[in-house]
Each structure stands twice: as structure tokens, then as C-alpha cells.
Amino acid sequence: MGYTCEPAAREVAKFLGFTCDGANPVVTLRSPFSLENWTLPVLELLIVGGAVFALVHAWRRWRRDGDPVNISLAFASLVYLAVIEPPLYFPEWFNLEKYVGFIFSHNVFTVQFMFDRLPLYIVAFYVVITQLTYELIRALGVFQRRGPAVGAIATAFACQVFYETFDQLGPQLKWWAWNPDNDVNKPMFASVPMNSMWVFASVSFGVMTWLVVRFVGDKVGRDRLSGWQVSWRTVLAGVLTPVLMVIGAAPTRVDVGAGDDYSLQKTLVIVLLALLWLVGGALLVEATKLNWHGSPQAMESPAFVRIYPALYLGIHAILWLTALPAFLAAIDGVTDTGAPIGSGWYALACMLVSTWFVVAAIRASRRVVQPAVAEAVSA
């Protein structure tokens, strides 16, 4: 099955330190001590452990608190992964080689699926990023005040800052590598394709969140949904996400003909990201002001949002610090090991806003007793 290790994939795999020839089609297990560098098992533990935490939290939200949004969002993200990832890994299987081509390759981690193309931590990452960002926005009360559409925009902004904290670091630490010869990856923002920054880091998760909240969230006059109703609506949300994502991606795929230097696409992505930062930032400021001293309607089950986002951000900050010497010593955007670096200033901006999200959500998750209630309790 040579088409699972085409020449471009073989070159990227070689750069990452492994070979894709003879890869197991189902699953491969490796020692965490034999990986490319020590950051890979650390990242894997952070994300896989976070996914377990997120799923336990989501189940509790549904069975104890009566809210199926979290569990639906977690499994909708896995349906979305099942729809979107195989064509990206193996475009030949879907007759997409002329339109997509070989885009990128993950490095090999402790647990790897599908001819070594899909690490377990990536499966877990979809669960983590959806739960982390949705819970932050829920804690800040944006969905309650503004409704599903605005809440989804705020979630897309939260996804942008948390995702890019990870995305701008990955190529330098060889968590994955992009195929620089594929035009789908152009234009680039440092070592990250700009289309990926917009579509995969924000649009997809914003769209998914909107669909799930619309399909299974509380509505006036709606009885509590059964397990079957939650299940089919979850699958539908996961399948529809790539369809609506394509619409959101359309402005960034403008084709202006041969010889294009991608300046128009780059400008469009910058404008779209700037709008997301403006709107998302305004919503974050508003939510912070309203919830800085806590909330009389503080969220149920706050443990996940009070612990995991800070842990995710803290571990990434440590990983960035360990990568900083090579980052600063890079010449023309490439380290002495040949790895491309991300955008330091953008990653720093994302980390600062992520910190703001974490602090604001923790403060918002505190329950404040209203004066009338406090008097009644004391009486």
C-alpha cells in the first residue's frame, strides 16, 4: 500500500525522525522514552489526561445537571474528526490528490492509528479544545446573555487563542510538519498555514458549538431530550460542521490565477482574524466586567473550568520557555535542527488573552449570594 507513504509523506516523515514505510494500518504502540524528544510524551499526557477529565465532566453535566451540551459537543467533535481527518491524511483514497495533495504529517507518539498518521493525542485534542473553550464561555455567561450565535463567536475566539498557543509551537518541537511544497498551505504565517489558523482553529469549532447548542441546548417549551435524541443530533452536528466550515473558508480560498503571491488571501485572513479579535475581545471585556466579583447564577460543575484551562496554559508556557533559546537563535525562521519556528508575538498575544480567559472564568465561577438571600439565610 505505497499510497500510504507517497514520496512527499516519506520526506516529511524523515524530517520528523521516523519512516512511514511498513506502518501498521490499525494501531502502533511505542515507548514514550523512544520518541523524537521529551516534549512529545508530555504533550500526550496533558491532552489525553485532559480528554478523560473532560469526558467525566461532560457525563456529570448531563446525568447530574441535566445538560447534554457538553457530552454532545465532545462526541460531535469525534464525528467531525472521523469525517475531516482521513481525506487530509490520504487524499488519494478520496480522489482528492489534485485538489488537496499531501498537506502535513504528525510525528509518531506513544499511541498511533491509521498507518501512523493519527496520534491518540489528536483524537483527545478535539475533545479537549471543544470542552475547554465552551466551558470558559459558559462560565462567563455569554450563551445565557447573548444566545447561541454570539456564544459560538466567543467560543471561536477562545479556540483561536488556546489553539494557536499550541499551533505556533508544534512545528518547532516537531509535533508535526507541514508540506511546504503544497499550495494548500499557502500563505504561511511564520510556520503555520494562515488558512488553518482561520478555518481549523476558529471557524470549525465555532460552527460546531453553534450547531450543538442549537440542537441539544435548553429551549423554552422543549422537554428533556432522550439519549437517542441527543445521539442522533450529536452525529448530525458533527457531520454538518465540515459543510458549514467550507462556507466559512470560502473567502480565504480566492483564486486569482497563475503567479499569485497569495497577498489577497493573506489580506483576507488577516481581516477576518482581526474582526474575530475585535468582536471576541469586546465580548470578553463585557463578560469580565459583569462577572469579576462572581455571579448569583454561577455555573454548575465548575471543577473542570477552574482546573484544566489553567493547567493546559501553564504546561504550554513551560514548553514555550524550553523552546525559547532555539527560537531566539533561529536564522531566517529556522532553528539549528532545521525546524521552522512559529510567530512569537502572536503566540504571546494568544497566551496573554488565554490567561485573561482563565482568570475571568475562575472569578465568574464563584457563586455570590444576593443580599436578600443572605438576609433570609441569616434569619
Number of DSSP helical runs: 12
Please describe the biggest sheet, giving its number of strands, its sense, and whether it closes into a barrel. Answer: 3 strands, antiparallel
pLDDT under 50 segments (min length 5)?
A: 372-379
Task: State the end-to-end CA separation.
Answer: 77 Å
Order of helices and strands: HEHHEEEHHHEEEHHHHHH
Structural class: mainly alpha
Percent helix? 55-70%
Number of domains: 1
Shape: globular
For the secondary structure, the number of strands is 7
- Strand residue content: under 5%
Mean of pLDDT: 91
Backbone CA Rg: 21 Å
Give the oligomeric state.
single chain
Q: Write out the strand line-up for the largest beta sheet, numbering strands in chain order.
A: 1-3-4
Task: Give the topology, please.
Elements: H1 7-16, E1 27-29, H2 39-63, H3 69-89, E2 104-106, E3 111-113, E4 118-119, H4 120-139, H5 142-146, H6 148-167, E5 176-178, E6 188-189, E7 192-193, H7 194-216, H8 227-249, H9 263-291, H10 303-329, H11 344-364, H12 371-378
Antiparallel strand pairs: 1-3, 2-5, 3-4, 6-7
Description:
By secondary structure, the protein is mainly alpha-helical. The chain has one domain. 61% of the residues lie in helices and 5% in strands. The chain is built from 12 helices and 7 strands. The strands form 3 sheets. The chain has a 3-stranded antiparallel sheet. Strands 2-5 form a two-stranded antiparallel sheet. Helix 3 runs antiparallel to helix 4 and helix 3 packs antiparallel against helix 7. It is globular. The protein starts with 6 loop residues before the first helix and ends with a helix. The C terminus is likely disordered.
